[in-house]
Every structure is written in C-alpha cells, then in structure tokens.
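Quick one, probably user error.
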C-alpha cells in the first residue's frame, strides 16, 4: 500500500510504534505487580491479618526515625529509634543486614522513595541489570558462545557438541554517599517535610554519581564503567577483545553523526540481544541527541520520533532513546552514542545496607546527614553494547 502524503505514513507508523511500546510497558508493569504481590503474600503468616506485624514495625520505625532526625541528640528519641529499629530488623523491615556499620538504618518507606526518585533521575538504572549481593566476593558467570547442536537420524551417531565458554565477571566495589544539610530552624518547623527533603536530596546526589560510574567509572573505589576502556574496532567474532572492551562502529563522517552510521550500529548488534526488548535502547549525550534530531530520511522525515508521554520515550530506528550527560559530545574521536542491550551488557550490584549518621558540628546552625550505601559494577557481556565513534579524518 502506498501513500501520496508522507505525513500520513509517518502518523500511521508512529501510531503503530506507540501501540507496540504501550504493550511492552504494560507487560513490564504486569510482571512487576505480579512479583510484588507474590512478595507480599510470601511475607504473610497464617492468621487473620497476614503481614500485620511487619506493617506495624515499619510504621513505628518510620515515626521514630522522623523524631530522631529532628532531635538527633535527644536521649529519648535515640532510645525510641533503637528499639524501633531492633523490632523492624527482626521483622526485616529495614534496609540493613547488621548493626556493625554505624549510624542507623534507613526505614524502608524512605529508602523506597529514594529508589523511586533514583530510577527516575538516573535512566541507566532502568536499563542495566541491577542485582543484590550480600558479599563483596560476588561474581557472575557469562556464556560468551552458545552450545552447538545438530540433526541426526534415529540410528545415526551422535557426535559431541561444543560447550559454551564461561567468563567470570567480578564487579569493582565502592561506597556511594550523599551529604545533604539543612538548617536547624528548618528541622524545628513542624511543617517541614523531612522525609521528602531527605529523599529528594539523596536521590539527586546518588543518581548523578551512579550514572557517571556506569558510563566512566575507573574501578577505583567505584564501579567499572562501560567506557572506562576505550572501545575498539575488533568485532565480536574476532574473539580477541578484553572482557571490559566494547566494539565501536565508525560514524562515516569526520565530525558528524550520520544516518548510515546509526543504521550500521544497529545491525552490528547480534539479533540474540535485540530479540529481548528489556534493556535495548539508544543512549546518547544531549549534544548528540540534538544532532540526531536533525537527521532526515530520503522523504524529508525526521529519523528521531519525539516522545509521546513519560512512559513512551523518543524512538530512533524503532528503538527507545535515552539521554545521559556523562557521554561524549559530538567531536572527532569521541563516542557520543551507545546502542545495544544494556541489561545483558552491564551489571550494577547493590551491596547490602543503606545507613545514615548525623553531623551537627561541622557547620554550626546546620545539620548534615551522611547517607551511604555500597555499590559495584562491571561490563557483563561486551558483545551486547556497541559505541558510535566519530571519525578523525
């Protein structure tokens, strides 16, 4: 079927892509809600009110925590928080595994709000594989080639087949911290929302640091980033790249992003990674996105299709587009665009607790909150992500 008016074709294509994106989004939400329901049911006990003890413990912990934040050196609030945390820890309503780290555990309600805002501010968290770990010795095994198979008749000889090669990936660790401060007068104001302020401040700091570490972390007291090792022209099938090194695809121009370069980038990623839509996306700097937004096809239509809603991002060549400030600008020799399956390609490890301590001495008249948690990260499968390299000549 042909169209006399290209704008009609574009509108139909955008509608079909929007429907497909909506179906994928709703499918993920159904899976998430199912997992949450199963988790809630798993917490229950036989009786009239499943989970009631945990809910009460969590509420008491949150209330005691709020009172302590306003009066961190008051003996009564300290005592009440200690008792509430012990009860919440017994019922597993805290984000900490032990009391040895110092400070107090962040209540689950507050940390849940931090996590929600963190996911919104750091788009990479929604793309990469995020896993919990209880030890710094955590490792992952990745199959870098599939087991072979074959066809045979009923009585034919079954020859041995190749087995997959397993690559061990051990993430590098570091402690991520935020140090927000607020005036004592603000804390004295009963209308001041401590939870909202603390959640927003911590999430903002964490999001920026996490995103930077996932892209460029050098592995020294922090995760090892995707671009910590310079990408190379060595292809997947050549099999000689180091585990941390991803492949680059030339842009086809000495100083610009080209449509042909973007198409080459898509087709350089193997189908086995693109067939799993979770984590498949474009990732580019704002500077690069501005350049891509100006590219047009042979009919004069823009390649980048704008976002329809918050849950349906902009799309390029059929795949969602995300921006990350930590990526390069468009310039000769830079890598301003990444594409692939980030969930298959990168692993972010959450190592145990989130804790908080209070400092009222460093800045008189203000209270500082030292919130920290341990994270680790590493390139999981360097075949799953590719980079676009701007030409140098």
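Nope, works fine. Designed sequence:
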């Amino acid at each position: 079927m042909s169209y006399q008016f290209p704008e009609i074709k574009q509108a139909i294509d955008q509608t079909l892509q929007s429907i497909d994106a909506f179906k994928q989004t709703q499918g993920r939400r159904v899976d998430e809600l199912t997992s949450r329901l199963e988790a809630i049911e798993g917490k229950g006990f036989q009786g009239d009110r499943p989970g009631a003890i945990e809910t009460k413990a969590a509420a008491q912990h949150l209330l005691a925590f709020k009172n302590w934040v306003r009066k961190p050196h008051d003996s009564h609030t300290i005592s009440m928080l200690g008792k509430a945390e012990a009860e919440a820890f017994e019922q597993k309503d805290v984000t900490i595994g032990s009391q040895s780290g110092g400070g107090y555990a962040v209540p689950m309600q507050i940390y849940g709000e931090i996590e929600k805002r963190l996911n919104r501010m750091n788009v990479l968290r929604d793309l990469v594989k995020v896993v919990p770990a209880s030890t710094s010795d955590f490792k992952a095994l990745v199959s870098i080639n599939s087991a072979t198979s074959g066809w045979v008749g009923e009585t034919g000889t079954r020859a041995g087949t190749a087995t997959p090669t397993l690559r061990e990936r051990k993430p590098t660790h570091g402690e991520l911290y935020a140090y927000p401060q607020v005036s004592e007068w603000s804390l004295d104001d009963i209308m001041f929302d401590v939870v909202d302020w603390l959640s927003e401040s911590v999430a903002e700091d964490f999001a920026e640091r996490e995103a930077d570490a996932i892209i460029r972390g050098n592995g020294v007291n922090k995760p090892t980033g995707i671009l910590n090792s310079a990408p190379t022209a060595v292809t997947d099938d050549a099999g000689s790249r180091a585990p941390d090194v991803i492949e680059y695809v030339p842009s086809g121009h000495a100083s610009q992003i080209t449509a042909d370069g973007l198409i080459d980038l898509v087709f350089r990623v193997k189908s086995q990674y693109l067939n799993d839509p979770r984590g498949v996306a474009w990732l580019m700097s704002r500077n690069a996105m501005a350049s891509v937004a100006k590219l047009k096809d042979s009919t004069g239509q823009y390649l980048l299709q704008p976002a329809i809603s918050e849950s349906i991002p902009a799309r390029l060549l059929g795949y969602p587009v995300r921006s990350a400030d930590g990526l390069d600008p468009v310039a000769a020799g830079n890598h301003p665009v990444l594409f692939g399956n980030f969930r298959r390609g990168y692993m972010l490890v959450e190592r145990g607790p989130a804790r908080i301590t209070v400092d009222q001495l460093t800045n008189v008249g203000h209270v500082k909150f030292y919130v920290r948690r341990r994270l680790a990260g590493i390139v999981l499968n360097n075949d799953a992500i590719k980079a676009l390299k701007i030409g140098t000549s």
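The CA atoms of residues 117 and 350 lie 16 Å apart.
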